[in-house]
C-alpha cells in the first residue's frame, strides 16, 4: 500500500465514574491521507466540506466512529476536543476494517 504520512489516532471513551471523556493515543507511522472537497445544495445555498479518506495498513489499530485522527505525530494529551484545535485533524464518520485479500487495511472517512 502506498503511504504518504504518519497519523495519530485519538480514541475517546466516556468514563461514567468521573463523568468525563478519557482519551487514548496511538501513533501510526504509515498511512495514506487524501482530502477531497464535496459540495451539496441546501435551502440555504451551496455548502462545501472537505472529506478526508485515510487508509491505515496496520489493522491492529483501534478506530471507530467519533474518534479523531491527527495528521503527523502528535503528543498532546487532550482533555477535550478543543485541545486539538490548530492541528490538521479529522473526526471519524466511518471506519471499515478490510481484512480480506492481499492488502488488509482500515479505511477511515471523516470530516
Can you put this structure into words, describing what you see?
The structure is a single chain. With 111 residues, the chain is mainly β. Helix content is 0%, strand content 59%. The chain is built from no helices and 6 strands. Strands 1-2-3-6-5-4 form a 6-stranded antiparallel barrel. Strand 1 and strand 2 form a beta hairpin. The chain is globular. The relative contact order is 0.25. The model has no long low-confidence stretch (mean pLDDT 93).
**How many strand units?**
6
Shape: globular
Mean pLDDT: 93
Class from secondary-structure proportions: mainly beta
Q: State the order of secondary-structure elements, H for helix, E for strand.
A: EEEEEE
Q: Separation of termini? A: 23 Å
Percent in strands: over 45%
Oligomer: single chain
Tally of helical segments: 0
Helix content: under 10%
Describe the sheet with the most strands: 6 strands, antiparallel, barrel
Query: Which strand order do you get reading across the main beta sheet?
Result: 1-2-3-6-5-4
User: What's the Cα radius of gyration?
Assistant: 15 Å
Question: Which stretches are poorly predicted, pLDDT < 50 over at least 5 residues?
Answer: none
Per-chain topology:
Blueprint: E1 5-15, E2 20-42, E3 45-56, E4 68-71, E5 89-98, E6 105-110
Antiparallel strand pairs: 1-2, 1-4, 2-3, 3-6, 4-5, 5-6
Amino acid at each position: 500500500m502506498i503511504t504518504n504520512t504518519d497519523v495519530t489516532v485519538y480514541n475517546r471513551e466516556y468514563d461514567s465514574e468521573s463523568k468525563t471523556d478519557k482519551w487514548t493515543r496511538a501513533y501510526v507511522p504509515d498511512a495514506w491521507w487524501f482530502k477531497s472537497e464535496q459540495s451539496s445544495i441546501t435551502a440555504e445555498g451551496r455548502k462545501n466540506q472537505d472529506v478526508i479518506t485515510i487508509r491505515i495498513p496496520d489493522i491492529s489499530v483501534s478506530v471507530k466512529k467519533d474518534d479523531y485522527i491527527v495528521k503527523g505525530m502528535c503528543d498532546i494529551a487532550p482533555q477535550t476536543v478543543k485541545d486539538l484545535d490548530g492541528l490538521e485533524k479529522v473526526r471519524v464518520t466511518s471506519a471499515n476494517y478490510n481484512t480480506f485479500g492481499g492488502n488488509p487495511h482500515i479505511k477511515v472517512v471523516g470530516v
